[in-house]
Design brief:
With 94 residues, this protein is mainly alpha-helical. It has three helices and two strands; from the N terminus they run αβαβα. Strands 1-2 form a two-stranded parallel sheet. Bound molecules: flavin-adenine dinucleotide.
Length: 94
Amino acid sequence: MSLTRRALLERLGLAGGVSAVYLGMEAMGLLNAPPVAAEPFELPPAPGRGKSVVVLGAGIAGLVAAFELRRATCAATCRQRGNTRYASFAQSAR
Ligand SMILES: Cc1cc2nc3c(=O)[nH]c(=O)nc-3n(C[C@H](O)[C@H](O)[C@H](O)COP(=O)(O)OP(=O)(O)OC[C@H]3O[C@@H](n4cnc5c(N)ncnc54)[C@H](O)[C@@H]3O)c2cc1C
């Protein structure tokens, strides 16, 4: 019985989802996956010292931005619209 590449990928998808299809396509040489370009970078020591930043919105993006700014020694504050300390999605999840 012959199995086409398409049929094999469909079966891979049924069994393992998108990840399995992706890896299968990579293994068969059907994907030209670029090499990972991201490299860890080092900040200079205390780049944010003496700087103050207000981040508007305490959603995940705002919280992460404030966290990273504080790690970079910036005086970062997160402000959320309304009376709540939590972002819109966090509110709906409570
Ligand atoms: C119903 C629903 C279910 C979801 N379920 C999932 C899930 O299961 N898993 C998942 O990974 N993602 C889920 N998401 C998506 C996820 O919630 C969003 O991708 C994520 O919240 C985006 O984060 P964000 O910080 O960019 O924006 P938001 O979380 O929207 O945060 C932005 C914040 O900024 C505030 N804001 C806006 N304007 C101002 C202003 N002028 N001043 C101060 N604050 C302001 C808003 O009130 C809000 O709290 C869901 C989204 C919805 C709507």
